[in-house]
Amino acid sequence: MSNNNEGLWHLRKEITRTQMALIISITILLSIGGMIINIKANDKAFNETLQNTSELITRLYSFTKKMPQSQFCVYMDNTASSITNVDIFSIVNKNNTRIYHTNHQLINTQYDGTHPDFSKLSTNYYTEDSNGPSGPQRRTYSAVYDEDENYEGFIMTIALKTSMQNVTKHTVLLFVVVTLGAIFIELAICTTISKKIKKEFLRFTEDFEGTKFLVDSMRANNHDFTNKLHVILGLIQIGEYEKAQNYIQNISIIQRETVSYVMHNIKNSSLAALLIGKIARASECNVKFQFRENSQYDESSIIIPSEALVTITGNLIDNALDSMNNSSNENKILTVGVFTKPGELLITVQDTGSGIADKFKEKIFDNGFSTKGEGRGVGLYHTKQLIKSMDGEIFVESQVGKGACFTVILKK
After folding, report:
1. Is 181 exposed, middle or buried (0-12, 13-18, 19+ CB in 10 A)?
2. pLDDT digit string (tens) for 60-95?
3. pLDDT digits (tens, 9 = 90+) for 184-217
4. C-alpha span between 95 and 97 (Å, rounded)
5. For the purposes of burial, counting CB atoms within 10 Å of the CB of 63, is it exposed (0-12), middle (13-18) or buried (19 or more)?
6. Which of 225-234, 295-304, 376-385 has the highest mean pLDDT?
7. Short-list 345, 346, 349, 348, CA closest to 300
8. CA distance to 7, 9, 209, 259, per residue, from 3 (Å)
9. Residues 156, 157, 162, 168: what is their CA dihedral angle, to the nearest 10 degrees?
10. How far apart are CA 339 and CA 164, in angstroms?
11. 179, 207, 239, 307: which is deepest, by most CB within 10 A?
């Protein structure tokens, strides 16, 4: 009996160690693959950004080159401030004189660097890695011609390698953090299952089915997770980096579409920024974030302070996420509606959380009231007070176990 116990105990530990080693090994490979994918994707994105920016500045230059120098610089400065992922751009005439540079100290100075012979290129663009006064950088050169196709000079758009590396590091770090989170969750599950299996072994030390139970439990726990990792690793190994990236990011396609919807339909930068942040937060909480059909916010329809919009909408969304986090409902959906028409704003926030019992519906807006313990219950109170201060109204409809829907109406 003692020998059986010792053998089964050793077998359980070996299986647990093997499982953990497999998870960690696959995760490390996945992280390396993710780094390769992100470097490739970021590299391509920076090239496209530099070329697109160069094309834009070339077009703008054709309309502004006859402006007085001071007015021309102001116009180009405004253009530079609105461009992202491009650190520097410069306009050099055919005499190699910088007629504009984002660093004004270099304006009207001589450009002594190299640039391509555009007459030998099949396109008007050329991108290369180089070194400049600001350090290692990626440059895109774009030839400029007048109306008679005479060469007038070139435009140079620059992304510093430090900026490119920061973008890549941020993306890779995010991916690594998510991967490590998955490892910790999996290891926690392994530990829990291991403890349960230990009890089974102690109860059935003479029964070989105990070993079978261990193997089956481990296999079921890892089956789905391992399959997904194998698909990604396979795509990486055959060089299909883009497909691997698409597979990894497939889970967030709906989220990205929602973010795009916000940018096109919410015409208030503060509210749009809040919603984008809450979409990311919902994703972290494993909650599907969606908008009601035809949701839109038009600042010309109603004048509401941005701070009030952010406070009201943010508190209601946080309350909904909190409700779903404490709910056993696996189908977690957060539905937000924002509608404006002349002089009126309607906001709805609906969740599939635990809902609100009838006896609490009249109390949820009381200061300090909460069913989740002390130190809570202020968010909805402040939200209602803010709405009342603007002569608005807030309503709640709820069904226990199904969720709740808060509706806010503001008129001006």
Report:
1. exposed
2. 888 888 888 888 888 888 988 888 778 888 899 888
3. 787 777 777 766 766 665 455 434 333 333 333 3
4. 5
5. exposed
6. 295-304
7. 345
8. 6, 10, 17, 61
9. -140
10. 39
11. 179
Confidence class for position 409, pLDDT limits 50, 70, 90: very high
Relative to beta strand 288-291, strand 333-341 is parallel
Tell me the whole-structure pTM to 2 decimals: 0.41
Residue 159: phi and psi, rounded to 5, are: -115, 120
| Residue pLDDT, tens place only, 351-390 | 999 888 888 887 888 887 766 655 455 788 889 999 999 9
Backbone φ and ψ of 288, nearest 5°: -80, 120
**How many CA atoms lie less than 13 Å away from 401 in the CB half-sphere?**
0
Q: Tokens at residue 351, please?
A: 């969740």
CA 217 to chain centre: 35
For the chain, how big is the Rg over CA atoms in Å? 30
Rounded to whole angstroms, how far apart are CA atoms 21 and 367? 51
